[in-house]
Amino acid sequence: MIRASFQRLKSAKRAAIASVLSVALVLPAIAPAAAQGRSVPIVRDAEIEALVTEYARPILKAAGLGNSGIRIVLVNDPSFNAFVAGNRIFVNTGALMTAETPNEIIGVLAHESGHIAGGHQQRLRDQIARAQTAAVVAGLLGMGAAVGGAASGTNGLGQAGMGMAMGSSEVARRSVLGYQRTEEITADRSAMRYLEATGQSGKGMLATFQRFQSGLALAGTRVDPYQISHPMPRERIANLTELAQSSPHYNQKDPAELQQRHDRMRAKIAAYTQDQRAASRLFRNDRSNPAAAYGDAFTTFLYGNPAAALQKVDALIKTMPKNPYLYELRGEVLMRGNRPAEAANAFATAVKLDPNRSGILQVAYGQALLATGKPAALKQATVALQQGLARDREYINGYKFLAQAYGQAGSIGEAELATAEGHYYSGNYKDAMIFAARAQQRLKRGSPGWVRAQDIISSRTKLKK
């Protein structure tokens, strides 16, 4: 599993200014789960990743980040949030499902791109370091006064010194929060520039902040604006409304085809992350929306029987014969119905139709071939799995099936290495090194596989830094 990059400063004074080193879109009250130090629950889906990456591509180019290797990562979290860490933009499934138009999500991505282009993560680290130094110096002065007061028997001086020491941490914390609020305003304005440069409206960004404002109002929440890392939604709306409305693109609508893809994405997320009526609730006011039938097919697959699901998928394929993700769903339905050979054919069609060459679809094809249990399909499955993982090195599930394929072929060293790779990309470095060492015992010294195993073993050194 990919883990978000967070760091907490551990001494008593440092704890007062501890801060996640990613930069989030929303208020702390709606912060991502990882902000509490937990792992980020990553979602992998070829269709959703392709769509959101398409949303981001022109924005990243406008921000000067087109060739920076920025990657969009989906987080399984129901809250409306997005944040950046390193060269990754993390977007919650809750944001994707809640946003009614592509423009809303594009605005979110533009904001996060502003953070990356502005170097806000590194500058936040620098600000924390400066605030930490100031807090330590002021704290030492306060402690010195307290010690002096105790030595002289002057209680007032001692109490004043302790107050100075405690106050220094609060001043440092507020300094960092104030700096973060400034950077958020900067990212908002950068986002507007990127939207303008790509001929898109800022209306979606305003809708997002209005949603936050409504959420606070409905919750009856009272927030001290000086105790948070983001400007209040009302302030952000006021700062951006005139700028957004003055753009000639303000009333620009998303293309109908893109809106339909967005609706299908929302229906899929609802089916997978909520109850079996969630997808239909999204379109209760527009039952004629084709995305309603799309969501119904996924719901039937998850909660119904394979025969009923297959019937609905095939009906959708007749209306969208070039949609690779319907063939992907068809393959999943057939796999659940224990028909792997037919599933392999469906996945092969999905791979052929996919313009994005998703490693996820390629791995699914290899998995289905492997599940047939036919010796003639084993080599084909191995090649498909290798190709899928070459396209997407971080698709963790693929390594399990690749290890299985190598094991069935008697290539134990390669199977051990595939298992090591899976652990490595999951962040389970200890087991990764154990399996890499086992792989080296069976692989020819100096071979590409042996060298890769050595790289995994050597990651221990990196972890200690």
From TrEMBL:
<keyword id="KW-0479">Metal-binding</keyword>
<dbReference type="InterPro" id="IPR019734">
    <property type="entry name" value="TPR_rpt"/>
</dbReference>
<dbReference type="InterPro" id="IPR011990">
    <property type="entry name" value="TPR-like_helical_dom_sf"/>
</dbReference>
<keyword id="KW-0645">Protease</keyword>
<feature type="signal peptide">
    <location>
        <begin position="1"/>
        <end position="33"/>
    </location>
</feature>
<keyword id="KW-0802">TPR repeat</keyword>
<feature type="domain" description="Peptidase M48">
    <location>
        <begin position="45"/>
        <end position="243"/>
    </location>
</feature>
<keyword id="KW-0732">Signal</keyword>
<dbReference type="Pfam" id="PF01435">
    <property type="entry name" value="Peptidase_M48"/>
</dbReference>
<feature type="repeat" description="TPR">
    <location>
        <begin position="324"/>
        <end position="357"/>
    </location>
</feature>
<keyword id="KW-0862">Zinc</keyword>
<protein>
    <submittedName>
        <fullName>M48 family metallopeptidase</fullName>
    </submittedName>
</protein>
<dbReference type="InterPro" id="IPR001915">
    <property type="entry name" value="Peptidase_M48"/>
</dbReference>
<dbReference type="InterPro" id="IPR051156">
    <property type="entry name" value="Mito/Outer_Membr_Metalloprot"/>
</dbReference>
<keyword id="KW-0378">Hydrolase</keyword>
<keyword id="KW-0482">Metalloprotease</keyword>
